[in-house]
Here is the input.
Amino acid sequence: GAGVSQSPSNKVTEKGKDVELRCDPISGHTALYWYRQSLGQGLEFLIYFQGNSAPDKSGLPSDRFSAERTGGSVSTLTIQRTQQEDSAVYLCASSLTADRGETQYFGPGTRLLVL
Amino acid sequence: SQQGEEDPQALSIQEGENATMNCSYKTSINNLQWYRQNSGRGLVHLILIRSNEREKHSGRLRVTLDTSKKSSSLLITASRAADTASYFCATDARGTGRRALTFGSGTRLQVQP
Here is the structure.
């Protein structure tokens, strides 16, 4: 694809509900990253995929957060039993390889609001 | 405090002026990158500087890196109203298996027309 796409663009949910956020990386990119950005803050790393495996999940804030990637392409970030503090913009990025210095290309993000 | 702190937090200048933003980090790095973000959405990669480089140019952008001081600066020359955005530095740590970038909290640049 032309760029990284994410869906939905915006999601409003009630506290306690589960949400799924989707990321379509650039075609052929083997590495995929999820970040979270709270209002007015920098990005916080959540999880990184190399192919379909996740060598680094260290940023997931709790066991309510999980992610998977299938076919070396699309990734889904799932947040179970959402809490108000989960409200943030969730950004996905992909890079051609996971080598150091590879540019990460970001999607437009999903703005999540938990009421 | 977190890796990759930018200063100032906010900067307001007139069109045509130069804008300088600084970034400090704490650990040894392989590379440092600068990103731009409009309206709190997707980030756009601007420039990457490797740890063995001291200065890099790209159009109106000039980036410097001082690994002894663990700091970098981004200079935007002849600013335009369209440069209004938030600017983030991001580093990848040397000596770890970590592939994710560590971002600072950003500098919000406002260019007045």
Notes: The first strand of chain B starts at residue 5 and ends at 7.
